[in-house]
Structures are given as structure tokens and as C-alpha cells.
Amino acid sequence: MNGKRRTRLGKILETIEIVINELEDIHDEEEMAMDNMPEGLWNSERYSDMENACANLQDAISVMNDVFDYITGTMVQMKKGAKRI
After folding, report:
1. How far is 37 from 30, CA to CA, in rounded Å?
2. What DSSP string runs through 9-68?
């Protein structure tokens, strides 16, 4: 992989890190909102929706971390391949 493509991938990794951080912040804020809900609302549809949102955000964070790892792995592999030439 040439330097230009590695640079582009590096920028993508930076963007993914920003997205992951934002998703984590939103997830934490939603969890905090759930924790601050009155006990009487814990069995409400709204609380259930918030739980689902948190679970979906956690899944999204996990997927984004996987994407980050795949791209990082690709860059490492391509760097090793470039040294062999």
C-alpha cells in the first residue's frame, strides 16, 4: 500500500476515533439519564426505549471498534508487505 492510501486510512482512523468517542459520550449521557429517572418510571415504555437505545449504542461502539481494528490490521499488514519488496 502506498503512502497516499496509508495517509487516507490514517485520516479515516482519526475520524472513527472521534465517532467512537461521541457514541460513548451519548451512551454515558443516556445511561446517566436512566439512572436519574424516578423509580416509578423504571417499568415504563420510555425507560425501556432508553435501555434499548443504550444497548444499540453499545453495539455500535463495538462495531466501530472492530472497524478500527480491521483498518489498523490492514495498515500493519501492508507495512510488513512493503518491507519485503
Report:
1. 11
2. HHHHHHHHHHHHHHHHHHHHHHHHHHHTS-GGGTTSHHHHHHHHHHHHHHHHHHHHHHHH
Assess contact for 9 and 75: CB atoms under 8 A: yes
**What is this structure's pTM?**
0.86
Are residues 16 and 67 in contact, defined by beta-carbon separation less than 8 angstroms? yes
Distance CA 67, CA 7 (A): 17
Cell 489498523 -> residue: 72
Contact of 47 with 31, CB cutoff 8 Å: no
Looking at every residue in the chain, the average pLDDT score rounds to: 93
C-alpha pair distances (Å), 38 with each of 41, 43, 44, 46, 49: 6, 10, 11, 12, 15
